[in-house]
Design brief:
The complex is a heterodimer of chains A (about 500) and B (about 140).
Chain A lengths: L1 H9 L4 H19 L4 H9 L8 H26 L8 H12 L3 H36 L2 H18 L4 H15 L2 E2 L6 E2 L5 H4 L4 H20 L15 H10 L1 H16 L5 H15 L12 H24 L5 H12 L13 H29 L7 H20 L2 H19 L4 H25 L3 H4 L1 H32 L2
Antiparallel strand pairs in A: 1-2
Helix pairs in contact in A: 1-16, 2-3, 2-4, 2-16, 3-4, 3-10, 3-15, 4-5, 4-6, 4-14, 4-15, 4-16, 5-6, 5-14, 6-11, 6-12, 6-14, 6-16, 7-8, 7-19, 7-21, 8-19, 10-17, 10-18, 10-19, 12-13, 12-14, 13-14, 14-16, 15-19, 17-18
Chain B lengths: L2 H23 L10 H21 L9 H20 L1 H15 L5 H22 L10 H4 L2
Classes of the chains: A mainly alpha (about 500), B mainly alpha (about 140).
Chain lengths: ~500, ~140
């Protein structure tokens, strides 16, 4: 174990890894600060660059960018009153009032320190959870993995934002799209319309570029106008004030980080819920809740600590079980697979060095994000004033060149554009793109484990394997729960309205 | 076009997609259709339920879709340019055209900005990533 921890760090001690980490963090900060883009777009655009480099360096690029976008989103929320991403929404409530009162530097300092400490807790959690999770994973068979993948799918569909029915439709559609190409068991070509291109299936990186990055540019064009306008008072604070605030509220950071870890581990409960939940617990546990919403520094610290810790929590099920906790983790999973990293039990046995490289990357990327971010935040803060007229052609160009670069096929550009249209329509009509992507990622795991389970344990394997049966009952319960709750709410409302 | 009509069009398309999947699944062997067929049936039923649900509500709003059509058109034009001229030339034309037509810059500034941007992408993808470029359908006409 100790050797793996050391080897994980040594793998990052190369010029390429160091350079990629700095590039990833700087790029993540820029994309994170641009409202509406965020971590998913940042990761999608990086997917074409994940081939042919050192493994640890590529991971540093991806994870570094992902971690930096989180804090980048907080900067936009604080300075512009526009959440950089949905997960940064809670930062608007107190962060922006602080900026209006001339305490923007203090808010940014508190936000960065809280995110750093939360991120460090996330990394420590990930490192300590590995020896605990490893024996559990080795005891599970294909039927239990099937149940876990099904649970991941159903929980994401039922607990995601918006309409439950639309969430389930998006999930089913994602599964069906993933089944285009060769059947993994019998090798039967499916849904290929006689096209050799479709025999290989839809390229995940290309689909992600379209679904998120191209769709976001289309949204930006339709919305029109500037990305964000800044309204701020005369600056009367320093970054150091915020750093001190964060350390003074250390217990709030610990509580919020634990919440972030828990939310990260649970599939489907996105970081956007985490930020709001952290804010709510900060208000509830405060002795002076009336200050919240008017520029209370705790309202900045709590969500940022949760968002920072969320990543370590989210990586645990992604690496250990191959079940992504959210859409960003799904894209990371796609990148891992394209780099030859196969998450699952084998990963924690033969690929332990790599897992610890990721732990180290989380630590280093959080430190770098804080250092670089605080040093250049005042300059970065001008980015949202960038005109969409400049941003749209540039991002679209990177999207299509990136799609082309994945395999050098023109058809990939067409697929990216098609998925851009699909992503736009899904977003407009509330069919969750997160569900769609996660279903795409889990589709093969479901099909493969179902076939293996049927072959190994027979047709009634669900009932003959006790752990599988228990997991199956748990899935039925968690899927039915939201429907039961809704029915009960309607019943109580009907009784309440009755004369 | 009203929001409800738009939602119905989307749901109708989804219904056709799931129905198509169901029909195609019937042509596969039992192993190959084991998961896709039940999923397609499940998806079909979900969309039917969604159509019923969205047509029971009473509120509806008119929506202007002109900018959306322009967005779809813009993406389609860009893809056509890539197919015809290859990605690098297409990026230059699209970026300069977009900057000029959106009135963000005059023709000279648009061309200058697009040139710098295209060169950056060229260095990144072609020199850095050693991407084998595609030169477009029109290449044989220019360079037989």
């Amino acid at each position: 174990m100790f050797e793996a921890i050391l080897a994980g760090l040594v793998a990052l001690a190369t010029p390429q890894a160091a350079l990629f980490m700095v590039i990833g963090v700087s790029y993540g900060l820029v994309i994170g600060i641009l409202p509406g883009l965020g971590g998913i777009v940042a990761l999608s655009l990086l997917l074409p660059f994940t081939y042919g480099h050192e493994l640890a360096a590529t991971l540093a690029l991806l994870l570094g960018a992902h971690i930096a976008t989180i804090w980048g989103g907080s900067v936009t929320s604080i300075l512009f009153n526009v959440p950089g991403a949905a997960k940064s929404l809670a930062l608007v409530f107190d962060g922006h009032p602080m900026a209006q009162q001339g305490q923007a530097s203090r808010a940014l300092g508190a936000s960065a320190t809280a995110a750093l400490l939360g991120g460090l807790m996330g990394a420590v959690f990930l490192a300590f959870s590995i020896p605990i999770v490893r024996p559990v994973m080795l005891a599970l068979g294909p039927s239990e993995y099937l149940m876990m993948a099904l649970w991941g799918l159903t929980i994401i569909a039922t607990f995601s934002d918006g309409s439950l029915l639309k969430g389930l439709i998006a999930t089913t559609l994602g599964l069906m799209v993933a089944y285009v190409g060769m059947d993994p068991i019998a090798g039967t070509p499916r849904f290929w319309f006689g096209s050799v291109y479709l025999l290989d299936g839809i390229s995940f990186p290309v689909a992600m570029i379209g679904l998120f990055a191209v769709a976001e540019m289309m949204k930006l064009f339709v919305k029109g106008g500037a990305l964000a306008d800044r309204v701020a008072g005369k600056e009367r604070s320093t970054v150091l004030d915020g750093v001190k605030d964060a350390f003074e509220h250390w217990w709030l950071i610990v509580r919020s980080s634990l919440l972030g870890l828990w939310i990260g581990v649970l599939p489907g409960v996105g970081a956007s819920v985490g930020g709001l939940a952290a804010y709510a617990q900060a208000v509830q546990t405060s002795k002076t809740p009336e200050r919240f919403g008017k520029g209370a520094v705790e309202g900045v610290i709590a969500p940022d600590a949760t968002l920072g810790a969320n990543e370590g929590g989210g990586l645990m099920p992604t690496l250990a079980f191959g079940i992504p906790g959210g859409e960003s983790m799904a894209i990371l999973l796609v990148a891992f697979v394209s780099m030859g990293i196969v998450p699952g039990p084998q990963m924690l046995i033969s690929g332990l060095d790599l897992v610890f490289s990721m732990v180290w990357i989380i630590v280093i990327a959080n430190l770098l994000t804080t250092l670089i971010g605080l040093a250049i935040s005042s300059r970065l803060a001008r980015l949202p004033a960038l005109s969409p007229s400049v941003l749209i052609p540039m991002v679209l160009s990177v999207c299509f060149l990136g799609a082309f670069a994945t395999r050098g096929l023109l058809a990939d550009v067409v697929v990216a554009a098609l998925f851009g249209g699909i992503g736009y329509v899904m977003d407009k009509y509330d069919y969750s793109r997160a569900n769609f992507v996660i279903a795409m990622v889990l589709a093969e795991m479901i099909e493969r484990n179902l076939h293996i389970s049927l072959g190994l344990y027979g047709n009634l394997f669900v009932f003959t394997r006790p752990i599988t049966l228990a997991m199956f009952i748990f899935i039925l319960f968690t899927t039915a729960l939201p429907f039961i709750r809704r029915w009960r709410r309607r019943q109580s409302a009907a009784h309440g309205n009755a004369p | 076009m009203s929001r409800r009509v738009q939602e119905n069009i989307v749901a109708g398309l989804l219904l056709c997609i799931f129905a198509g999947y169901m029909i195609m699944c019937l042509g596969f062997g039992p192993n190959a259709r084991l998961v896709p067929l039940p999923m397609a049936i499940f998806g079909f039923l979900l969309v039917v339920a969604q159509i019923v649900r969205q047509n029971l509500g009473s509120t509806d709003t008119e929506q202007d879709s002109r900018r959306e059509l322009m967005a779809f058109g813009g993406v389609a034009i860009f893809v056509c340019l890539i197919a015809l001229l290859g990605p690098i030339v297409a990026v230059f034309l699209f970026a300069s055209g977009y900057l000029f037509l959106s009135r963000h810059a005059g023709i000279g500034k648009a061309v200058a900005v697009a040139s710098v941007f295209t060169l950056t992408l060229y260095l990144l993808f072609v020199v850095g990533l050693q991407l084998q470029l595609y030169h477009g359908i029109l290449k044989p006409l220019i360079d037989p």
